[in-house]
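not sure who needs this but someone in the group chat was asking about 2-isopropylmalate synthase from Methylacidimicrobium tartarophylax so here u go. i didnt clean anything up, its just raw.
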Amino acid sequence: MKSSNRVIVFDTTLRDGEQCPGASMAPRQKLEVARQLARLGVDVIEAGFPVISQGDFASVREIAEQIDGPKICGLARCLPGDIQAAGEALRPAGKRGRIHVFLATSTIHREHKLVKSREEIIRLAVEAIRHARSFVEDVEFSPEDATRTEPDFLLRIVTEAIAAGATTINIPDTVGYTTPGEFAERIRMLREGVSNLGEAVLSVHCHDDLGLAVANSLAAIQAGARQVEGTINGIGERAGNAALEEIVMALQTRRDVFGGLETGIHAKEIVRTSRLVARMSGLHVQRNKAVVGENAFAHSAGIHQDGVLKKRETYEIMDPMAIGWGETELPLTKHSGRAALEKRLIALGFGLSREEIEALFGKFKEIGDKKKFVYDDDLVALAEGQITRIQETFELVYWTVSTAFHGVPTAAVRLRKGDEVLTDAGVGGGSVDAAMKAIDRISGRHGHLVEYSVEAVTEGKDAIGEVTVRVDFGEGRLLTGKAASTDVVEASVRAYLNAVNRSFLSRGDAPTKAQTASSRGGDVDPKTSVPIAAAP
Ligand SMILES: CC(=O)SCCNC(=O)CCNC(=O)[C@H](O)C(C)(C)COP(=O)(O)OP(=O)(O)OC[C@H]1O[C@@H](n2cnc3c(N)ncnc32)[C@H](O)[C@@H]1OP(=O)(O)O
Ligand SMILES: CC(C)C(=O)C(=O)O
C-alpha cells in the first residue's frame, strides 16, 4: 500500500451526497459546489454517476471541463455501458480523470441482489477494472458492503482488483454496520493479507446508520487507510456519509493522536462550503452539528461564557475563525451570566455601572425565561430603561384582565406604594381601558388617554412591544408614558402607570392613603416588562 503522512480527501457530496432524498442538484448548482470543493482543497471530486441520466453525464462532463485542481471521478457499475459513459464524461479531465467501479461482495448482496457466485463477481470486477483502465489510468474499485463480506473473499477480490489495474481500493461500510475497533481490524487484515496492496491506495467510505461514520473513518485512518471518502455536512444515502469537515478537523485538532497526518484542506473554506452545500441541496444543517452547525461555537451557559471571555480555549478546542466562522458568539439566553451581559452591553455602547447591571440582571433573566434568546434590541430597551429610570410612586405588583366577545372587559390591578399594597378593579371599553380605570381608582388620578401607540422593537412572535401613551391629567399639559414588554397589555398597563407616576413627579406631590380607596394586596407576581421613562 502506498503509505505516507498525507490523507487523500475524496469528496462524494455530488454523488453519494446527492443520493439523499430531496438533495438533487441542477447541473449549474453542482458546478458551483465543485468550484467550492476545489477551493476547499479536496483531492478528488466524485462528480456523479454518468450512466444514470443525461443530466448526470452532462454534469460530470462540465465539471471535468471547468474545474481545475482536484481529480474528477465518475462512478460506474461493473457494466460496460456504465464504464463507457463514465469514460466519455471524464474525457475533458484528461489525466485528472478517475473511474470508480463498484460491485457488491457480501453474501447477502451476492445471493439476493446480484444473484451471482463468488467467481462471477471476481470475473465481473476484473473485466470492469480493465475496461475502465482503457479510458483512464486512475481506477478505483469498491467491494460494496465490504464490512459484511467474508474476510477470505474480501482478501481475494482486493488482490485480484489490484492485479487487474485498480489504483485505489476503497473499503465501503455501505450500510454503516461496523464499529471503530472492528473496522480498524479489517483494515489491518487487508494491509497484512493483500500481498500487492503496496501498488494501490487504501481508502475507506463510511455510512452513518449507527452514527459511527466519522469514528469508523478515523479508526481506519489510524489503522493505515490513506484515502477517506465523505461528504460535506455528512449528507448522503439514508443517515448520510461521514462528514468530511469533522474528519479533517479531528485530524487537525488531534495531531497528537493521529501522528501528524496531513490533508490538503484549507480549513478556512469549511464553513463557506457547508453553507453552499446546504443552500444548493436544500438540506439544512442542524444547529448542533459539529464544526459547521450554528451552535458549534456558540456558548450559552453563563459559566462557559465567563470562561470563554477569560480564555477562549477553556471551552473551545478549535479556533472558529480558522474554519471560516466569524467571532465566537455568546448568545444571551436565560443561562447567561453577568459577565456575558456586561460584555454585550459594552459592545452596544452602554457604560453601565456594576449596580446598574445588577439592577438590570433580574429583568434580563425574566426576559430569558420567556424568550429563547435575549436580542440586542431587548438589551437596548432594558438598558435605556435603566438609564432613564424615574422614581416611581406606584410600582406594579399584579394585573389581570378578562374580556370576551359581547362580555364586559374588566381588570384587577395591584400596586405597591412604599410598604402598602393596594388593589382595585375597573371596567372599560377594552381590557387596557379597564386596567387604566383600575389604576385611576388606586392612584386617585383620572387620566384621559389622548394618544396610544404600540410598536414591535424586536423580531419574532415573542417580540418586545413598546407602548407609548400621552395622557391628559387635566393640568394643562400632556404627560408621556412608555413601557416595553413581551405582553402588549402589560406594556400598556405599565406605560399608563409610568405616566401616572410622572404626574406625581411633575406635581411634586404623592397621593395620600385617603386619595387611594384601594384594598391591601398579596404577593408579587412579576412579569417581563421594562418601564421606560420619557420626557413629559
Ligand atoms: C452503495 C451505492 O451507493 S451504489 C450507487 C447507487 N446509486 C444509484 O443507484 C444511482 C441511481 N440509480 C439509477 O438511476 C438506476 O438504479 C440505474 C440507472 C443505475 C439502473 O437502473 P435499472 O437498469 O432500471 O436497474 P435497477 O435500478 O432497477 O436495478 C439495478 C440493477 O443493477 C444491478 N447492479 C447493481 N449493482 C451493480 C454493479 N455494481 N455492477 C453491475 N450490476 C449491478 C442490479 O443487480 C440490478 O440488475 P438487474 O435489474 O439485472 O437485477
Ligand atoms: C459505491 C460505494 C462506494 C458506495 O457508495 C457505498 O458502498 O456506500
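also Residues 16, 102, 142, 144, 170, 172, 174, 205, 207 surround 3-methyl-2-oxobutanoic acid (ligand 2) (CB under 6 Å). if thats useful
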